[in-house]
Design brief:
13% of the residues lie in helices and 29% in strands. The protein has 92 residues and is α+β, with helices and mostly antiparallel strands. The protein has one domain.
Length: 92
């Protein structure tokens, strides 16, 4: 699935290991995500940092509050890959 096809309400796994809920149906280099990481916050996330997606969380109280059945067939557009190269050249 391309990152442009990820819709509002789906959950994503970011490159740094954090996960969050997508808040927009946007396309392009950034997406608005409610991120659950070191802190809980919402904001823009580069689309090239999305490495997996899940339609909804699965309640498994033994492991943690939420568990996910991650799908890792994420594809990035050529423009998103170019943005990734530019960001890495800047040290991001």
């Amino acid at each position: 699935m391309k990152t442009n096809d990820i819709k509002k309400g789906m959950w994503v796994l970011l490159r740094n290991g954090w996960h969050g809920e997508v808040w927009d149906n946007g396309r392009g280099n950034t997406r608005v995500v409610d991120v659950y990481g070191f802190e809980h916050e919402a904001g823009s996330v580069y689309a090239h940092d999305i490495v997996a997606y899940a339609v909804k969380p699965v309640n498994r109280p033994v492991e943690s509050r939420y568990s996910f059945d991650w799908k890792t067939d994420v594809e990035h557009t050529p423009a998103q890959l170019k943005c990734k190269e530019m960001a890495s050249a800047l040290g991001m």
